[in-house]
Amino acid sequence: GSEVHLRVRVAPLGNRFMLLLAADRTEELRLAGVRRDFVANISHELKTPIGALTVLAEAIEAGAEEPERVRAFAKRMQVEADRLGRMTKELIDLSRIQADDPLDHPERFPVARVVEVAVDRNRVVADAKRMRIIPRVLEEAEVLGSEELVTMAVQNLVSNAVQYSPEATHVGVGVRVVDGIVEIAVTDKGVGIAPEEAERVFERFYRVDPARSRVTGGTGLGLSIVKHVAVSHGGEITLWSRPGQGSTFTLRLPAADASATEENA
Ligand code: ADP
């Protein structure tokens, strides 16, 4: 059927890790194109909520509206301002990730803590949908890089899993280590992603269903942040999905060398 098992491989920024030494030129060139479109995309994306805010404010100022409608407009303005705020925050996050290399000043941190914080930050939204997020940390592992950025990436994956799943379903967050690579897999029983969309969802501002995503407040930036976090840590992000049944996003990061801990201690 329409099952997709796609690996989105991205060339690492440096060549610190043997793991991904083979740089994929095609992907590099494609990313350069995406970057060129960035300014055009960003102005378009920001114009939509700003335009809505302007129109709504003008309507209220004209004073011809019933109080009931004024309240509805104000509510709509809150939604748009909220979205604008989230978009600004995510854009700042994204430019920060691109501006500095987390491996220039790396810190060691446990993946278990990343998962705990990322799950915790999604608790309220999950509870509201009667969903349970189930962490399964099978192995203790540490990663070298920015704990804040990796947490942000996992948080985004969990947030998407909750957002694109029906009520009362479960989201799994599994951690294991395979050949020196830490795998953080976020699995949902949600709407899934069609094969033809699989690669595009990692692009900035791309949303499979913009109308629906607007209602739920999506910005289309979450997965591009995840991708950049993966790349800047010498790792990768892969996606497995079956439309209508669910998705698994797996973030793979090189495990911090266990022997290095003892040397440094
Ligand atoms: P958004 O803010 O819209 O969630 P993302 O970059 O995080 O932006 O995701 C891009 C698009 O990929 C989403 O709009 C959604 O259509 C799709 N998507 C992301 N995660 C999932 C998931 N777990 N299940 C189904 N679709 C997803």
TrEMBL record:
Pinpoint the Histidine kinase domain residues.
Answer: 41-257
List the protein's name: Sensor-like histidine kinase SenX3
Provide any one GO MF term from the record: phosphorelay sensor kinase activity
Reactions accelerated catalytically: ATP + protein L-histidine = ADP + protein N-phospho-L-histidine
Which GO terms of the cellular component aspect does the record hold? Answer: plasma membrane
Q: Tell me the superkingdom of the source.
A: Bacteria
A biological process term (GO) from this entry: cellular response to phosphate starvation
Cofactors, names only: a divalent metal cation
User: Which top-level enzyme class is recorded in the Swiss-Prot or TrEMBL entry?
Assistant: transferase
Please state which portion of the whole protein this structure contains, as first and last residue out of the total length: 112 to 376 of 376
Per UniProt, subcellular location reads as: Cell membrane
Name the species this protein comes from: Agrococcus carbonis
